[in-house]
Write a structure and sequence with these properties.
Blueprint lengths: L1 E4 L1 H6 L4 E8 L7 H17 L9 H13 L9 H10 L9 H13 L2 E6 L7 E6 L7 E2 L3 E2 L6 E4 L4 E3 L16 E8 L4 H18 L5 E6 L2
Parallel strand pairs: 1-4
Antiparallel strand pairs: 2-9, 2-10, 3-9, 4-7, 5-6, 7-8
Helix pairs in contact: 2-5, 4-5, 5-6
């Protein structure tokens, strides 16, 4: 899998750093040990941060700024990393989707990055390109229906958009049948070390909870 960053993204977000995790996995509906780790993490997280802390989180602020540079209002189309952190700090429970989605959400909260998760067998072609959504471009967000991605950063395969920091596409979403996974950490803060650390955390969680023995990390856009 080759992941490219378009010139339009380079011009607006020159500091962008991405990290992709490619893995063979076994997904399940839920994993009690994972949720024990999630609940322990969230208890500690809420003891250290409040909703006001979001204003000072570099990863979230950088993603919001990237939206503005690309032409999207981040308050109307909230990045998923920010949405998860807000939900957590407001005292709401996280959604239980599946083991792989749940562990990606944990990593997103831990680092504040918006993270895309895809069934790589559903991706068309061997190249993904990060660009900016166009007016009228078709896109079906997971659980959201038709999503206006004009002005949103978007990864495209041969057929079109598969992922934005706000929502991934129904076409390539993770299911219980997913055996080949691609996750992408969107590092709009330009912190290569932190982006890599987030990817390595995902790698560790996959090894612990998704029977992942074969996986690799690809850095791009650096």
């Amino acid at each position: 899998m080759e992941i490219r960053v378009s010139e339009e993204i380079r011009q607006r977000c020159p500091e962008f750093t991405g990290a992709a995790v490619l893995a063979c996995v076994q997904n399940t509906e839920t994993n009690p040990q994972l949720w024990e780790e999630i609940n322990h993490f969230i208890t500690d997280y809420r003891s250290r941060y409040t909703p006001d802390s979001i204003k000072e989180m570099p990863t979230i602020l950088a993603t919001r700024e990237a939206y503005k540079r690309c032409g999207k209002d981040p308050s109307r189309y909230r990045p998923s990393g920010e949405a998860l952190v807000r939900r957590t700090l407001k005292g709401n429970d996280l959604y239980r989707v599946s083991t792989i989605v749940d562990l990606i959400n944990l990593a997103s909260i831990a680092y504040g990055y918006s993270i895309g998760g895809f069934d790589s067998d559903k991706i068309k072609g061997q190249t993904l390109t990060l660009g900016i959504g166009k007016e009228g471009e078709p896109y079906e967000g997971i659980g959201r229906g038709t999503l206006n991605i004009s002005g949103l950063p978007v990864f495209r395969d041969e057929l079109g958009g598969i992922g934005t920091p706000t929502s991934d596409n129904e076409r390539t979403k993770i299911s219980l049948e997913t055996t080949h996974l691609l996750t992408i950490v969107n590092g709009y803060d330009g912190d290569k070390t932190n982006t890599l650390a987030c990817a390595q955390y995902i790698q560790e969680l996959l090894q612990k909870y998704a029977m992942s023995e074969r996986n690799e990390i690809i850095l791009f856009g650096c």
